[in-house]
Structure formats: C-alpha cells, structure tokens
Amino acid sequence: MIRGGLLAVAMLLAALAWHWSALVARARVGAAYGARITCSCRYVEGRDMGSCAKDKEPGMALVRLSDDPDSRAVSASVPMLAGARAQFRPGWGCIIDPAH
Fold it and tell me: Cβ atoms within 10 A of the Cβ of 26, count?
C-alpha cells in the first residue's frame, strides 16, 4: 500500500518536471494577460477592481490581481510561477512592464 502511494507520488513529480516549462510559460501568459486586461478595465474604462475581476477568462482562477492606484498599475501573479505588471500611460493605454 505505501509502496503504491510512493510510486504514484514519484510519477506525479516526474510528470510535473516533464511539463514544467509549459506550465511556467502558460503562467507567464496568464499573468501578463490578467495584468493588461485588468489595467485597461481599471484605468481606461474607470471600473472598480471587483467589476474588473469578472472579466477573467475561464481557466484564470489561479491568477491573483492587485491594484496600485498611486502608480495607476495592476500586478498579476500565478503563485510560485509567474508575475506581470501593467501600467497606464496617457496616450498609450496600459503597457506591460518588461522589468517585472
């Protein structure tokens, strides 16, 4: 019984390691998309964060959003995998911060 459980855990870890780069890539895209769309919702459309959270696409449940009104920016993250930040710039809209 214990041996079967250890085998299952080992197989799960191996599958996770095998697909790690794809998971990280998807997390990066999800975080960047969430930051950009929510920043536009917040600072172009003028909606509140509660309203903007409804704009998340299916499958984005792990993307966490936070607002920084002082710099007119929104940060998004997928815990332990990726993060992104988009900042509103007049005349340009919301732009992803490449340094984040």
Answer: 15
- pTM comes to 0.82
Name the residue among 35, 29, 40, 34 with its Cα closest to residue 97: 35
Alpha-helical segments (H) within the chain = 2-18, 20-39, 49-53
Residue 79 · residue 97 · CB < 8 Å: no
Phi first, then psi, for residue 59 (nearest 5°) are 95, 0
Taking the domains of the chain in order of start, what are their residue ranges? 2-96
How would you class 11 by CB atoms within 10 Å of its CB: exposed for 0-12, middle for 13-18, buried for 19 or more? exposed
Strands (E), the chain: 64-68, 73-78, 82-89, 93-96
Q: Please tell me the distance from the alpha carbon of residue 56 to that of residue 30, in angstroms, as a whole number.
A: 10
Give bridge partners of residue 84 from the DSSP assignment.
76
What's the average pLDDT block by block, 10 residues per block, for the chain (100 residues)?
76 81 92 96 95 88 95 96 96 90
